[in-house]
Amino acid sequence: MTDLINLLTLPESSRAFTAYRSSAVDIDAQSTYNPRKTPRLDTDSDSGSASRSRDRLKGKNPDRTGPIKIQVHGFQGGIVGSALTKVYDRSFVLLRYNIRQLLTKGSNELSATYEGIYTACRGVVCIAGRGEMLYETLKAEIDQCVTRLARELETANKEPVEWIGQFVEACVWFETQVALLQLLLTYLDRAYVLKNPSLISTHDLAFRLFRERIFGDLIVHRLRTGILTWVTWERNERLVHIHRPFLEALISHLVTHNIYDILFEHYFVEQTHVYFSTESRRKVEVEEMSAQEFLSHCKERSNEEEGRAKDVMLDGTVALVKDATIRALYEGRLEWMAKEVVGPLMEQQGTAKLKHAYATFSSVDGLPVLCREFKAYVQKTVQDIVKDASKDDEMVDRLLQFKSFTDTVLNEAFVNPSSNQTNQDFVYALIDAFAKGFKARRNKPAELIAKHVDRLMRHGQRGMSDAAFEALLDAALALYRFTDDKDVFRTFYHRALAKRLLLERSASDDFEKAMLKKLKEMYDPEFGMGDHMFNDLALSRDSMREYHARIADDSSAQKLSVMVLQRSVWPFVALKKDVDLPPSMQADLNDYTTFYKIKHQGHKLDWDHSLGSVTLKARFAAGPKDLTVSLYQAIVLLLFNEETDVGYRQILEATRMDDAELKRTLQSLACANKKVLKKRPVGKEVNDDDVFYFNAEFTDSRAKVHINSIQAKETPEENKRTQTHIEGDRKHYLDAAIVRIMKAKKELSYEQLKNETVDAVKSHFVPEVSVIKQRIAVLVEQEYLRRDEDDMNLYVYVA
């Protein structure tokens, strides 16, 4: 029996059962097995070997290489049981000793090899069934180990950052020993712990006990003190600390023990906010740093913190640290920053810096503040441009330049990085700011925008592509949408269009028609009047071709060109008196009038010579020239065919022209750049006593000289008449709107009537409240409305 025990417990030094020869019997499934038959161990002397050889050839040879299962009875009690108990007691003592040695820092003496410890664990857990005892022993040893480590760390006398190095060393040693134990005690985890769901593995047990004991209040405090000391030094010195690797290793161990978030991340983010809040107050309130300097400083600090976090911490912490830095720096500073940064950067056209400011404000949820300041700046700038009467000639160009820049800012600076789309809040703010800025001065912006479009139409593309020229027109119309005075724009545009068409000063009829179509479809249906204007011109050309075909080829009327226009379509009023034409001209007009009335019975022709043009042959000392002049200028010049010197009063009597119109005409001939007349005395103004004479010495490099541009210019009197016409039309609009509203509603309070009137006419203009009130009073006087007898604030429609 003793030999059997030795064979079972000492397989590495004994042949064990390999000393015995075994014989396996192949039992046929169809035969009956005789239990009394004695199996032969010696296969060579077995008489059945021949049959087994045949079976081997048939593939029936049994497998003799597999394990042999032996069951030994009678181990309980007695000599065998006592011996086995002693064996396992020795194995358990060996395991406990070596576990303690492995968990004792500085001890490297083991009583057995790793293989011996591994085998002992197998025997104790799998054979002796002492897994619970070993597990409890392991737990106690780990607890003592972490207690010693905690005491060592708590009593260590080192500088905060250096102490972190000692903590890291302790973590490295403990994690290494636990990993080794986990390998040596594999059978404890696999054969015991896995069968008990309430237990945790060797690794998890060790780490739990480590976390519970090591990360107590004192050690956590010393860790955080070291972390704060390190990061404060780096922030103040703006350099890398010599012991930064300690922090990198610390992060790794905190993650390993699942305590990174609680112990490090939350604390670090909180201290970051505290540090930079203090720095923000110092920079702004003590050092009085300017907003732009502060913005640059914050950018540098934010980049430094982001870089430090990327080098040391987990990826998820980087964004938290950067966010805490930016929020702390800008907390309570957004209003001040926006006011101090937006204006100067807009004036400097610092799009890149505005983009950085947008990103900064976005990161601290400050975009509404930035948007408000942007809107306020744009509105004030537009108001300043619009109200600057001394620079009215430059108003539209300045507005276009500013609008172009603000559009660039929107598309390049105020863009959401996630969608790469312009922030719509800033787009709406820009539109609102321009609209409110235009309200600072009524009528004038709309008038000047119309005149700007007129200049573009007269000058044409001048080498630009169609797309580029159309972009210029669209930019001008983009300003038109901001004005409330749509009727002012329409009136001035209408008059300018009429002049361009009649004087043939338009660069392109195609662009004229395209512009009218766009205005009609996108802004105001009343721009449909342009279609009628082009129709009149076409009919007039057809009429002139027919007239010229009927008269003699040598007739002076062959050079006559007449435009017959509908008064309701064209923006001109009938003149109370007109000039006296030379007899030959008047005869040709009379002849055409007869032709027209025969063709169109019942139509009445009223002649307007103010927009007529004439081409004259003039003979100067330097040679003949063709002079293109207005009809008024031609009438004056023809007087000098008969007289050398003609006085102002004589000209006035001969032409019966309006006094102001005559002075303007003479000024264009004798005082402008192209002086085909001269006057005595010399001067820029025309007086009643001036005498004019023909300038035979006039020279010009071109054979055809144009001096009729005076017609295309608007005189102060004409502008005043246009403004008066606009105000008169507005009264009619308001009267019609009020009557129409009251007819539908029957009775309304003053406030209701006022609001509905504004809504009714706002597509043409936005009336002042005082004007609405005045028109209501007029309509009451005219008995279209009446006040209610019981409520004087209530108006009633009078049928």
TrEMBL record:
Disordered, as annotated region: 31-66
GO molecular function: ubiquitin protein ligase binding
Pfam families with a match to the protein in the record: Cullin, Cullin_AB, Cullin_Nedd8
Residue span, Cullin family profile domain: 444-670
Sorted UniProt keywords: Isopeptide bond, Ubl conjugation
Keyword Transcription regulation recorded: no
SUPFAM superfamilies: Cullin homology domain (SSF75632), Cullin repeat-like (SSF74788), Winged helix' DNA-binding domain (SSF46785)
Origin: domain of life: Eukaryota
One annotated GO biological process: ubiquitin-dependent protein catabolic process
Biased composition (Basic and acidic residues): 52-63
UniProt record similarity statement: Belongs to the cullin family.
Protein name, as recorded: Cullin-domain-containing protein
Source species of the chain: Rhizopogon vinicolor AM-OR11-026
